[in-house]
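To illustrate the input format used throughout this study, we show a single complete record. The first block contains the structure-token representation of the backbone; no residue identities are included at this stage. The design step must infer an amino acid for every position from geometry alone.
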């Protein structure tokens, strides 16, 4: 049961970090003069990149620890 809680909390933490990073990227794009669609696109790309990085790190750690 505690293993499930750790997995759920870790997933929630990764999603929150990805959302904060995407929001920062979108805000920086708007401050740089990008249009709203361009800023949204940059935020979405950043969100996907953070989730991809988290998945890659998870796979690498799983391979090392098992």
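Output of the design step:
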């Amino acid at each position: 049961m505690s293993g499930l809680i750790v997995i759920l909390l870790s997933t929630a933490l990764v999603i929150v970090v990805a959302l904060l990073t995407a929001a920062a990227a979108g805000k920086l794009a708007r401050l740089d003069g990008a249009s709203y669609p361009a800023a949204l696109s940059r935020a979405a790309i950043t969100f996907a990149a953070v989730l991809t990085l988290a998945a890659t790190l998870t796979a690498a750690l799983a391979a090392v620890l098992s």
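Structural context for interpreting the output: The first helix runs from residue 2 to 31. The chain has a mean pLDDT of 95.
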